[in-house]
Structure formats: structure tokens, C-alpha cells
Amino acid sequence: MVDLAIIGGGPAGLSAAVYAKRAGLSTILFEKMFFGGQMVNSHNIENYPGYASISGIDLTAKFTEAVEDVEKRMEEIMAVDFSNKILFTARERIQARSILIATGAKPRLLGVEGEERLSGMGVSYCATCDGAFFRNRTVCVVGGGNTALDDALYLSKFAKEIYLIHRRDAFRADELTVNKVKAEPLIHLVLDTEVQRLDGKDSLENVLVRNKKTGEEHAIQADGIFIAVGNIPQTEFLNGKIDLTPEGYIKTDESLQTSMEGVFAAGDVREKELRQIVTAAGDGAVAVDSIRKYLQST
Ligand SMILES: Cc1cc2nc3c(=O)[nH]c(=O)nc-3n(C[C@H](O)[C@H](O)[C@H](O)COP(=O)(O)OP(=O)(O)OC[C@H]3O[C@@H](n4cnc5c(N)ncnc54)[C@H](O)[C@@H]3O)c2cc1C
Questions:
Q1: d(CA 219, ligand 1 centre) in Å
Q2: pTM of the model as a whole
Q3: 52 C-alpha vs ligand 1 centroid, how far in Å?
Q4: How far apart are CA 36 and CA 38, in angstroms?
């Protein structure tokens, strides 16, 4: 029996482990792939306080250094009995007094040729993270929701021109944002259009698109493409036992407790506005403070 079981070793889970250690909680942290989570995919992080510029791998090393003596297991949590707080891996079961879900999210891929090969070489899923690298360059944004339109507006601060590619003729984003996008001269709308292929030798050079109505194909010359077609929160293993938003994010209250008592959530996996390393790390701290109080009261 441990005081706290943390599921996920990204910035939210690792930051929670730091706070759990300081609070004197017996803790075990499970990670199914590698520590650092999505942070590892970032070649250059320029928005984490304390570092003008650092790679995701180096920042992960700093995070893990701080939790060397916290018990960690490279194992996937396959299922959880939330009523009795028992976690199951393929090989063992662990009983905990409280649980923190910090399993993050994965960006939804477009699924076109060239996307995975050019990921990090012009193909990005995070405008807030990578936008500044495209100063005076031509970029595309793909998507029709608030994230895509906000990304296009954000990129208009850096890029020379932006092609906003959407497969329908109307956007799903709120009216105010749509109007701002339409009023921005650097943003060109490419509607009723789908991306077919991404081309480039060492980095992105061309985005091949196809108009859905006319069937016409043409290439847009671009240095970067920001894909904002949604995220997939990693919540499959919850098996419907915790309340989620329609998009699959975990609902939490102010203390970051979920719909189940003693079960908390932190980071990209929960419903929130800004999904970044700094907010994930902040969530980890808030969640453990709440967990400490919860454990004292039980
Ligand atoms: C390409 C890219 C670049 C980015 N660049 C930046 C940037 O420059 N600055 C910035 O602030 N943010 C950046 N972000 C966003 C940032 O990485 C995320 O907001 C942050 O990592 C979220 O942290 P998290 O701990 O909530 O989740 P994640 O980082 O997603 O970590 C979750 C962890 O949980 C593990 N896990 C999932 N399910 C299980 C399970 N069942 N059992 C055990 N383990 C499990 C996963 O393997 C993963 O390691 C970037 C994201 C991407 C994709």
C-alpha cells in the first residue's frame, strides 16, 4: 500500500513526484514508454521559465534528476479498480490510498504521406512552442476549430504569410476568432481543401492539397505546417469510470480531484485551456497539495 500512485511520467507526473517526495508521501510512479512524455519530442523549448532555450531531452533529465529517489516503474497501467484504488499492470497489482492520473494526450495526426518523416523538420503540432522558429517564413495551418484559428493568428506575429487549410467551407471556431482571422491580411483561407501529401528532402518544402469540390490539386510552397486537428487524451484505460468531457478529457474541480474521491488528474489529460509544460508542472504541484490534504482527512 502506497500513499500515492502516479500514472504517467511526463512533466505533470514528474512534478507531482517532486512535491510528493517533499510532502513525505510514499509514492510510486508508472511510465509506459519513456520519462518526459511529449516534452521529449520538442527539439527546442523556449518557454519554460529558467531556460532561454533547452531541448526536451535535457529538460527531462533535469526533471528526473529531482526525483531520483522516488520509486519508478517502466510499466503501463492497464486498468484501475477506482473504488478500491487498485492499479493493474500486466504483471502486478498495486494498492494506493490516492491516485494521480497524468497520462497526457497525443496530437491527432493527419495521416498523410511525409507527415511522420518530416515531424520536427517543419511539421509541428504546437504553434505556441514552435511558431517563433518561422519568423519571415511561409507556413500552413490545418484545421477549422479554435485551436487552428488561434494558431494562425499567433503565427501572424512571426510568419510572412499563413495558409489556413480547412476541409469544410465554414469554421467551427467562435465568431469573434473567425472575424479576426478574416481581417488578418497575412492569413489566406484555403477552404474545402484537404492535405494530400507533405514533400521535402531534409525539411518541409511543399504541401500538396486537393480541393474537395473541384478535385483540383496544387502545391503550396511552405517552410512549416502546423497541424491542429485535435488531440487524443490518453484515457482509454479508465474504462468509463471517471467523468470525461465529450472530447475525452478528464473533468476536475479546483483541487484537481476527478469525479471519483481520492483520484486526481493533472496535465494535458484534463480539461483545461492551455496545454504546456509549465501548466502541466503547475498541475502536478496543485494536485499533490490537494492529495496531501485529502490523505490527512481520511
Ligand atoms: C512536438 C511537441 C512539441 C512541444 N513543445 C512544447 C514547448 O516547446 N513548450 C511547452 O511548454 N510545451 C510543448 N509541448 C506541449 C507539452 O509537451 C505538453 O503540454 C506536456 O508534455 C504535457 O505534460 P503531461 O505530463 O500532462 O503529459 P505528457 O507529456 O503527454 O506525458 C504523459 C505520460 O504518461 C504516459 N502514459 C500514458 N498512459 C499511461 C499508462 N496507462 N500507464 C503508464 N504511463 C502512461 C505517457 O507515455 C507519457 O510519458 C509540445 C508538445 C509536442 C507534441
A1: 32
A2: 0.83
A3: 20
A4: 6
Which cell numbers in the block locate residue 1? 500500500
In this prediction, residues 143-147 reach a mean pLDDT of 90
Find the residues whose C-beta lies inside 6 A of ligand 1. 7-13, 30-33, 37-39, 41-42, 45, 47-48, 76-77, 102-105, 107, 125-126, 129, 234, 237, 267-269, 275-278, 280
Q: Please report, as a single letter, which amino acid is at residue 288.
A: V
Distances (CA, A) of 290 to 55, 134, 163, 194: 31, 40, 44, 45
pLDDT digits (tens, 9 = 90+) for 188-247: 999 999 999 999 999 999 999 999 999 999 999 999 999 999 889 999 999 889 999 998
Active site (annotated) includes residue 223:
no
Q: At 165, is the secondary structure helix, strand, or coil?
A: strand
Q: Which of 130, 150, 223, 283 is catalytic?
A: 130
Pick the catalytic residue from 3, 126, 192, 289: 126
List the grid coordinates of 157: 506575429
To the query of whether residue 140 is one of the catalytic residues in this protein, the response is: no
Ligand 1 centre and the CA of 278: distance in Å?
11
Q: How confident is the model at residue 147 (pLDDT cuts 50, 70, 90)?
A: confident
Residue 55: count of CB within 10 angstroms of its CB: 15
Of 113, 181, 104, 93, nearest to 141 (Cα)? 181
pLDDT digits (tens, 9 = 90+) for 42-73: 777 889 999 999 988 999 999 999 999 999 99
